[in-house]
Every structure is written in C-alpha cells, then in structure tokens.
Description:
Organism: Sorghum bicolor (Sorghum)
Pfam family, one: Bet_v_1
GO molecular function, one term: signaling receptor activity
Distance between the termini: 47 Å
Family: Belongs to the BetVI family.
GO biological process, one term: abscisic acid-activated signaling pathway
Amino acid sequence: xxxxxxxxxxxGLPAADVWEVYxxxxxxxxxxxLLPQVFSKVELVEGDGxxxxxxxxxxxxxxxxxxxxxxxxxxxxxxxxxxEVLVTEGSFLDHGFKKYLVRIEIIGKEQKTSTIRSTIExxxxxxxxxxxxxxxxxxxxxxAKAITExxxxxxxx
Length: 157
C-alpha cells in the first residue's frame, strides 16, 4: 500500500529566506530549540547538509513508539528549493512503514512571499496493509509555522 499526504503553509516571506533555513542543517538545529515537544535532539551523523547527509532525530521522552530515527538527505535542489529526506532506520520503519520520505518544497510567489509544501510519501509493509500505521502532516505543519515565525522575528530584530 502506497500513498502520500501534503500540507501547504503560506509564509509571507521570500522563498530565499525560507530556503536558507530549510535547505541545509539549520532547520535541524532550530527544531529542538523552537519545538522541543516535537524533537528533543537532532544530531549530525555524517555529511555537510548536502545529499548523503545523515541525521539522528530523537523524540522527547514519553513519546509513544520509537525513541529516535535516522534520516538521509537524498535530494537537495538549491535552484528549485526542494529537499527530500528518507527515513533509513527506526521510528516509522519500526511501525509498519516500508518507505517514509519527506519532501519539502519552498515555492516562491509574487510579491516576495512563498509557500512551504511538505509532502510525506509512504509505503506500508504488506503485513500492516489491513491495519496501516497513521500518517499525518501535523508535525510538518507545526514546524513550518514555527520556522516562519522564527525567520520573521529574526528579520525584525
């Protein structure tokens, strides 16, 4: 069983400002600071923020399910502001997913504004197809909102 879910968030910011955070490692540094209830820690395992970068992402204590997961950057397209991250170990893969990919697209619009489109593409193991794990973009939506607020505060201050 395969599927995908998307969420769009209007930022009110130029695409370049948003991509500056999402395009490399900064987003991983900011999430535990801005949203410790989502991820308590994001550690660089290997890489420099480009394709092949691996992160270890840790959930806050008490989060149901796995404590952590590893993800690998499989696409970083600076020209089109697209990043794809594939979960390679733990969490989602421990709970019935065969594939769990997150794509972030920063879509520039007129009048110096942009949209963050967060997409989850997934594939469920055949043995979990009758009772598939839950897929939600709510975490990505929360992150998009927090990152946008962070950039706006930084620009003012």
